[in-house]
Amino acid sequence: MEKKGVRGQRSDKKRDVKPTLKLDLKDAIYRLSNITYTPVKDVCPSLCMFVIKDRKTIEHLSQFFKRDLLFDNTMFRGHVTNKTISKRINVPGERVTIRFSQSEYSAIALLAFSLDCTVSRATAILLEISMSQARFVNSYIKEFLQQELSESQLREFKEILRYVNRNGESHHSWASLLAHVVDEVGSPVNRIKDAISSFIDLNWRE
Asked: What DSSP string describes 7-21?
């Protein structure tokens, strides 16, 4: 007989993870949060998922696997004699709070099990990797803009990026150009659509 007054756990309930991050890594993530007007707790899961789905990253991490991990159709074999990944950082750090969906949490928990470390440490490792490789940051920015901008706005942003890289003195990524847009427009805007529209109006339309 079912007990009254007892709620079932929601299948989409978020799981909090509080990794300790190096101060410079935390600062970099907060800057990414600022230029996308997105809370850190929402930025971090996206970054982690980009990394954890990347075969090259898993291949690199497999040297530390103490237990097997199935990735797509490949079984990466773990062994107790494999090198041990650092369990904690040896420099000053601070905790951040991240909220993962159940599926995101499960994916990281499996990686943590293979690495024989905590979920919070595995999360910190994924974030370190994501922010140290431009391809992951650019993937995040590109996906973010595709979700936020209208088709015409995204087309204009792409054209600006092509123009700047063709005629400018230095090469710009999606991330660096977006950071420039936010710096150029300043603080009055509070949405990325408004920031990009203002930037285009100020600099690219007569």
From this structure: PPPPTT--EEE--EE
